[in-house]
Amino acid sequence: MTVSCVAVDRERGESVRERLADAGVLDGDHRIEVVDGTIYLPVTDPAGVPSDLAETLVDRNVDERDRPRTPADLLGYEPSLERLGDIVIIDEDDDGRAREIADAVMASDLPCATVLNRASPIEGDLRVRQWDVLAGNGTETVHREYGHEFVLDVAEVYFSPRLATERHRVIEQVAAGESVVDMFAGVGPYAIPMAARGADVVACDLNGTAIEYLRENAERNGTSDRVTAIAGDVRETTGEYAGSADRLVMNLPHSADEFLDTAVTLAGEDGLIHYYDIQHEDDPFGPGARAIRAAAGDDYDVTVETERVVRSYAPHEYNVCLDVRLSKR
């Protein structure tokens, strides 16, 4: 059957596949083919393909895929699942239903080594939660995102695969030669791809285990020479980088405002802050913009370049991002 496909070099296949999946146009009903070093990725809607990939579209005869046996096929209903590497995460209060879903996941054709159920909310300064291991025997995995690999332990560090598209949006803005400070870096999902684009990145986190994983991930992704990983409170560990940052990432949405004085101190002559916040739908961007202006004082002109709702966080509350430029007066 003739279908539209994105045709790219095989080496780009995984990163392009992830982008097509994020755009909602990856065709799961037809086989992905590799011929002479070119990978052909079927798409459902050519008009929905990211613009920079539009010129790679071709029509090709490809076979239909054998439909895999899914957890829904076995359960008779569609469970809510989240994938993180080879871990499947569920969120069920009923123990019996949770184990029923875990058994179906393991019996299905879904690639999976471990099934976890959330056992607590995100807690403490390190933003970690408790887990019930329903199948498998570990909480460590390797997550792949836009061509990069991140090894992490979900019981020891914070990581959200749901933010992949937002991270990619920010990362694509980075130019070679930039000086970046990622103030709450975790295992490196911002820092490492930014370094891969040629930036020099100072990556900080209060969670020492996250910093250990970040160093391992920098090595794994070939960016160790451009990532400086620092364990500890960014307010206490980055004095030598004052006035150096072309770009700052502040992904600590519940309390980023408490670190704005440090962000302003780190900013260079002309710097961009990616400031994440959680606010009520009535005024999702105002509190963040006002806090940044107050911290900048008379030293900087403040320009809000982008206001973006990242996702719904709770009823009537949004997780938002403000891209804010500070220009030295």
UniProtKB/TrEMBL annotation:
One annotated GO biological process: tRNA N1-guanine methylation
Gene Ontology MF term list: tRNA (guanine(37)-N1)-methyltransferase activity
Sorted UniProt keywords: Cytoplasm, Methyltransferase, S-adenosyl-L-methionine, Transferase, tRNA processing
One Gene Ontology cellular component: cytoplasm
Statement: the UniProt record of this protein carries the keyword NADP: no
Lineage: superkingdom: Archaea
UniProt EC number: 2.1.1.228
Pfam family, one: TYW2_N_2
Stored InterPro entries: MeTrfase_TRM5/TYW2, SAM-dependent_MTases_sf, TRM5-TYW2-like_MTfase, TRM5/TYW2-like_N, Trm5a/b_N
Gene3D superfamilies attached to this UniProt entry: 3.30.70.2580, Met-10+ protein-like domains (3.30.300.110), Vaccinia Virus protein VP39 (3.40.50.150)
Domain SAM-dependent methyltransferase TRM5/TYW2-type: start-end pairs: 81-328
Principal EC category: transferase
Identification of the protein by name: tRNA (Guanine37-N1)-methyltransferase
Record organism: Halorubrum alkaliphilum
Lineage of source species: Archaea, Methanobacteriati, Methanobacteriota, Stenosarchaea group, Halobacteria
